[in-house]
Specification:
The structure holds two protein chains of two kinds. By secondary structure, chain A is mostly beta strands. Helices cover about 0% and strands about 50% of the residues of chain A. In chain A, a hairpin with a 7-residue loop joins strand 9 and strand 10. The chains are: A mainly beta, B mainly beta.
Chain lengths: ~120, ~110
């Protein structure tokens, strides 16, 4: 099956610093990648959709200047949380989809703790 | 009203039981239906993927879609402790780059 990796798996940072999370599709080319955030006991909340080579589309209420997304290649997308604050602490999950296929394959997630 | 409604549980069953997980939805345009399993602190894993109405079986798992009632189900036969996880239903309108809407997930515990 398709494999999506994320790095790092967990990160602790100080308030005000920036954190970059990588999402890679290991065995397929992902023309579309998605970034989700998940708070405890809640479902996945889509933050943004990124297509390779173009700007990401952000969901309503998600600050594009705070959550920078880059999808520079067909196998890599990055999410940078800029000037992180404690309320940004969450579980960030990416997923990838290849072309016209419907199924998304999820990464294992990155747990972010901002102190 | 949420687009997708799913009972959060938790649902506790004895090992070997048949488990029924359900979701209802309000958007009649949904055509693709998925079930994901998510273990604690892990990303969701795709279990079943169906298009339109009908049944689909894969091993111990059976997915049912009733578009007329806007109701989907996932049945797990001979449940095992390793099935203990949160199960998320998900659905989308059509192919291409349409976003997927997730339910909030049902937490299942299979007791040995």
């Amino acid at each position: 099956g398709a494999v999506v990796s994320q790095h790092p798996s967990w990160v602790i940072c100080k308030s005000g610093t920036s954190v970059k999370i990588e999402c890679r599709s290991l065995d397929f080319q992902a023309t579309t990648m998605f970034w989700y955030r998940q708070f405890p006991k809640q479902s996945l909340m889509l933050m943004a959709t990124s297509n390779e080579g173009s700007k990401a589309t952000y969901e309503q209420g998600v600050e594009k200047d705070k959550f920078l997304i880059n999808h520079a290649s067909l196998t890599l997308s990055t999410l940078t949380v800029t000037s992180a604050h404690p309320e940004d602490s969450s579980f960030y999950i990416c997923s990838a989809r290849a072309g016209a296929q419907e199924t998304q394959y999820f990464g294992p997630g990155t747990r972010l703790l901002v102190l | 009203q949420k687009e997708v409604e799913q009972d959060p549980g938790p649902l506790s069953v004895p090992e070997g039981a048949i488990v029924s997980l359900n979701c209802t939805y309000s958007n009649s345009a949904f055509q693709y239906f998925m079930w994901y399993r998510q273990y604690s602190r892990k990303g969701p894993e795709l279990l079943m993927y169906t298009y339109s109405s009908g049944n689909k079986e894969d091993g111990r798992f059976t997915a049912q879609v009733d578009k007329s009632s806007k109701y989907i189900s996932l049945f797990i036969r001979d449940s095992q402790p390793s099935d203990s996880a949160t199960y998320l239903c998900a659905m989308s309108e059509r192919g291409g780059y349409q976003k997927v809407t997730f339910g909030t997930g049902t937490k299942l515990q299979v007791i040995p």
